[in-house]
Write a structure and sequence with these properties.
The complex is a heterodimer of chains A (441) and B (541). With 441 residues, chain A is an alpha+beta fold. Chain A is built from 5 helices and 19 strands. Chain A is globular, with a radius of gyration of 33 Å. In chain B, the strands form 5 sheets. Chain B has a 7-stranded mixed β-sheet, with helices on both faces. In chain B, strands 15, 16, 18, 19, 20 and 21 form a 6-stranded antiparallel β-sheet that branches. In chain B, strands 8-9-10 form a 3-stranded antiparallel β-sheet, with no helix packed on it. The chains are: A alpha+beta (441), B alpha+beta (541).
């Protein structure tokens, strides 16, 4: 190496030193300079190794969920789904999803508005022609249809004919009256076919009177399955009317007044439903009885629409006529959430169809209050108490036969339509959990 | 001489060995994988996933129990955030002129209307259309509009808020207010749209006419839009508020621990922009000096001030997360007899937003700087320390009423009353935020050694939040890293007399200064002094 080269290197090193010193001096003066207390920035772990390990199984779930959500957003899947749903409705088809009362099973199906299907909705807006089908695996199969008209002659008159086929694979039965045992667990497979004719008058949007004439065929099959015994064996020797089904004719009048501000999330108003019905067996059927029913609820705002006290009374009595009998499947039933099919009234700590009787008294009181609101979403918490009993004759009614059910629920709604109802109820027969998409009342 | 030569050769050799791979590394641009996120993913991740798995974080529990904080990892020795691809110190470092504040990041005056804008892509959410357009100069923009009945609400808020974020120091696209007539817009070749159906459709004159029919118009019959210029570079997705990009040498610190990411919660509280979220950020790969680097942007400010998607801001926004487990739990146990602050405010407002549709729902009633919440519960916002909050508040406090007015004016509100209302609300909120965070830290700044004294500014006194006559400054002096106190200082003025012996002969001294007001003592600010004066500052976390 020549002296010249060495000098160049020395000069270069001195220059580098001066530059470094100048940089340091600058750093002392520039309070925004990237000079850090512990040298250059280094990454630190977000979590300790143990916590990372604990998270690991959840990360395996997060990845596909994240990918799916990104796909849904990027491909406008939600918009497409809503569009398809709206178009189906426009063409008269509406998908249906609910949960069965007897089990947490999805009850799926759809309704067809045949007037819309025929593209005649605009020309005949008051014509009713609907058909629906619902199915829950190994549990229920229902077909409904209705043909008629509303606002006939631009008045409140309405009239329609109905057809219903209802197959229930497992209708539980525990005996009749207040003193039955959950241990006498039996069930029946039941198929009912109903033809009806309705005529009524809508006095106002909140008041309606409807008369119905109905023919119903009840077919029963007895067998033991899935932990429940054969009804004819478990209740052998006991008088269970209607044990083998039968055919019936009935005449019914229903007066309905409904002033609620919303069906699913009422904060004020009330409804009253008063029913008188006469049922008579045909051919060899022994059924012959009157039914009187009052179903009423009132909703009180407690100083705010976010606090609502909902009170409901349900009373029903069946009265035999001229030695006729009341088949067990026509009796009043209590138990379950009572939210979708309304065959068994709301008595939440008890299983669906737990109590059968010629008469029933039921009180539901529920305090609902808002705990979360986000745009059109809302979640109400509810604390409820159900008090009820079934009995046969009034002379047999005893206050001591009332059973209690109490619990809490969380109801999520969107635009005042319930999308999720998670409830838990406790009573003297244990605790019941519910996941539904409707509220009890 | 031979020895010197050997040493020199060794230095050069080592330097070359070290330098060669660095040069080769520098010339290799990292390949950035796209980070995808959407609103749904953000909601799931933040509101469900992390809310759950954070409960399995033992360190987090430890920090909660022992009240430990995670100090920001990217602050320099002076407790400041150096410039980076995330943040550039602007108004907090040097007061921007009115022209700079008004201009923001704007490079142009907006779309060039000398020829009709060509739509390249349309979008529609509900009755809320938007367009991607190309103007006469070939610049590309995204046009967004107000909802029916809310003229100026979202468009003006977006443009004005972009000026604030820019002046604070974030990178934002250019936003301008655009007024145009139907003849100023046409459909480009191959233009398409995703309408309400979710299906891709060719953009047709009928669809354009339908879109335009949804839009509110000004008194002059013009359409009003916020035009954001498409930023240069390759879009590689969104900025995580949690973790760093491991292959980005410019991104050495996890984002949760970046002060400027944490402080987004404070700035967004000021601007009432509860929609600050990962899916409203962008990372753009750009080539600078032959090297691919990332530039991080915030965008989509049409939920700032009193605006939100769909119209006026819903009343719970800013007070609760989208799903707020804490608030839900409190409400469950209160059995409905607890009126939440936002419910009280909404009741007092007679459940109506501001009478001017351009304002929406924006006031300081029930505003709490400590409890203001973004839409999603990002952990980065939750680990914000007092020092981080002080840093953000210091920047916010640096904006005068005039500065605020200049930036609000960029929204071009047609009614002076609306502009006045916003300026007043933002100025009030600035003071509320600054007062709060200045009370959570020693609000002392701008430390200097002058004539044997350590002088500084008390920002709380300077901004009139505290009476300077009621406070005193106390300091404990020690050697850095040592606990033993070597002196105690006290002063009623924002200056402390120093003993030259502390820093003589290369010595250093550490002062822990607190502000005392009556019986109350503030957290400390640590100042390190050396021969060159102030060598370090750190506010207590």
């Amino acid at each position: 190496m020549t002296r010249k080269c060495r000098n160049i290197i020395r000069v270069a090193l001195v220059a580098v030193g001066i530059a470094a010193f100048a940089g340091a001096s600058f750093a002392q003066q520039d309070t925004y300079a990237p000079v850090y207390p512990n040298g250059p920035l280094k990454a630190k772990r977000l979590k300790d190794p143990v916590s990372s390990l604990l998270e690991l199984p959840f990360r395996l779930v997060k990845w596909p969920v994240d990918k799916s959500l990104v796909y849904i957003d990027n491909h406008h899947v939600a918009d497409k789904a809503i569009y398809i749903y709206d178009r189906m409705k426009e063409y008269g088809f509406t998908p249906h999803l609910a949960f069965t009362d007897s089990a947490i099973l999805p009850l799926m199906g759809g309704n067809a508005d045949l007037v819309a299907v025929a593209r005649q909705k605009e020309d005949y807006p008051d014509l009713i022609a609907t058909a629906s089908l619902r199915y829950a695996m190994d549990n229920r199969f229902v077909v409904d249809s209705e043909i008629g008209a509303q606002r006939i002659g631009e008045t409140g008159f309405h009239s329609s004919g109905t057809f219903n086929f209802d197959h229930r694979s497992r209708e539980p039965f525990y005996g009749i009256g207040p003193d039955t045992s959950l241990g006498d667990s039996s069930s029946v497979r039941m198929e009912t076919t109903t033809l009806g004719y309705n005529v009524g008058y809508e006095f106002s949007p909140t008041l309606d009177l409807t008369g119905t004439f109905e023919f119903k065929e009840n077919q029963l099959k007895h067998r033991a399955h899935k932990g429940k015994g054969d009804m004819t064996e478990i209740f052998a020797g006991r008088d269970i009317p209607g044990l083998y089904g039968g055919e019936e004719l009935s005449w019914k009048a229903v007066l309905l007044r409904d002033t609620r501000d919303s069906h699913d999330e009422a904060t004020r108003g009330s409804y009253q439903k008063l029913t008188f019905k006469f049922t008579e067996g045909v051919d060899s059927g022994k059924a012959r009885f009157f039914t009187y029913q009052l179903d009423t609820a009132k909703y009180f705002r407690l100083g705010s629409p976010r606090r609502v006290l909902a009170v409901r009374f349900f009373g029903e009595h069946h009265d035999e006529v001229n030695g006729g009998e009341i088949p067990f499947y026509d009796m009043t039933r209590l138990g379950g959430m009572g939210s979708s099919q309304r065959t068994s009234e709301t008595f939440r700590a008890f299983t669906y169809n737990r109590f059968y009787g010629e008469s029933a008294l039921l009180f539901n009181i529920e305090y609902r209050y808002a705990i979360w609101e986000y745009r059109d979403f809302r979640m109400n918490a509810a604390v409820f108490l159900d008090e009820g009993q079934t009995f046969n004759e009034f002379s047999a009614f005893k206050f001591s036969d009332f059973r209690e059910s109490y619990g809490v629920g969380f109801y999520v709604s969107h635009s005042k339509h319930t999308v999720l109802n998670i409830s838990v109820a406790h009573g003297d027969e244990g605790t019941k959990f519910y996941v539904k998409n409707k509220v009890a009342f | 001489m031979k020895k010197h030569l050997t040493v020199n050769s060794l230095v050069i050799t080592v330097t070359m060995i070290l330098a060669v791979p660095m040069v080769s590394r520098a010339s290799e641009s990292p390949k950035f994988r796209e980070r995808e996120t959407t609103l749904c993913k953000d909601v799931f991740d933040q509101n469900i996933y992390y809310e759950g798995v954070n409960q399995l974080d033992l360190g987090r529990w430890g920090r909660k129990i022992f009240r430990k904080e995670i100090p920001a990892a990217n602050v320099n020795v002076f407790d400041e955030v150096p410039d980076s691809s995330f943040f550039t110190n602007r108004h907090g470092r040097r007061r921007l002129s009115n022209e700079e504040l008004a201009k923001g990041s704007a490079e142009t005056a907006g779309p060039d209307l000398s020829a009709p804008m060509k739509i390249t892509k349309g979008k529609q959410q509900g009755l809320h259309p938007g367009f991607f357009i190309e103007d006469a100069k070939g610049d590309r923009y995204c046009l967004k509009f107000d909802n029916e009945g809310s003229l100026e609400l979202a468009t003006a808020a977006e443009v004005a808020a972009s000026r604030f974020y820019h002046a604070i120091g974030y990178h934002v696209p250019q936003y301008t207010v655009l007024r145009f007539k139907a003849e100023d817009i046409t459909i480009g070749e191959n233009a398409y749209t995703y309408d309400d159906t979710g299906f891709r459709k060719k953009m047709t004159p009928e669809i354009l006419e339908q879109y335009l029919s949804f839009l509110p118009v000004t008194e002059d019959g013009e359409y009003l839009a916020s035009a954001s210029k498409i930023v240069p570079g390759k879009n590689v997705g969104h900025l995580s508020f949690r973790s760093r990009r491991q292959n980005d040498p410019e991104d050495p610190v996890n984002h949760r621990d970046r002060r400027e990411i944490r402080a987004l919660s404070v700035f967004s509280a000021w601007l009432n922009n509860n929609d600050i979220r990962e899916s409203n950020t962008l990372e753009m790969a750009v080539t600078e000096n032959g090297k691919t680097v990332l530039k991080r942007y915030l965008f989509d400010f049409n939920s700032a001030f009193g605006a939100a998607a769909g119209g006026a801001k819903p009343p719970m926004f800013g007070h609760e997360y989208a799903i707020d487990y804490g608030e839900i739990t409190k409400a469950v146990f209160a059995l409905g007899f607890w009126e939440k602050p936002w419910q009280e405010k909404w009741r007092r407002a007679r459940e109506m937003p501001h009478k001017s549709p351009a304002i929406g729902y924006f006031s300081n009633d029930q505003f709490d700087p400590e409890d203001h919440k973004a839409q999603l519960p990002y952990e980065a916002f939750r680990v914000l320390t007092n020092a981080d909050g002080f840093w953000a508040a210091k920047i916010i406090a640096s904006f005068t009423d005039e500065d605020i007015r200049t930036m609000v004016k960029a929204g071009r509100y047609s009614r002076p009353e609306d502009e006045d209302y916003l300026v007043q609300t933002l100025a009030e909120r600035r003071d509320l935020i600054a007062k709060y965070w200045f009370s959570k830290a020693a609000p002392l700044d701008a430390f200097e050694v002058l004539n044997g004294k350590l002088v500084f500014k008390d920002l709380a006194v300077r901004h009139g939040f505290v009476d300077g006559n009621t406070i005193r400054y106390v300091a404990e002096v020690s050697r850095p890293g040592k606990k033993k106190k070597i002196a105690a200082l006290e002063s009623r003025e924002p200056s402390l007399v120093l003993d030259p012996s502390w820093t003589a002969e290369g010595g250093k001294a550490e002062l822990r200064i607190r502000v005392v007001c009556g019986e109350e003592e503030s957290p400390y600010v640590k100042v390190v002094l050396g021969g060159a004066g102030v060598e370090g500052v750190r506010h207590e976390d």
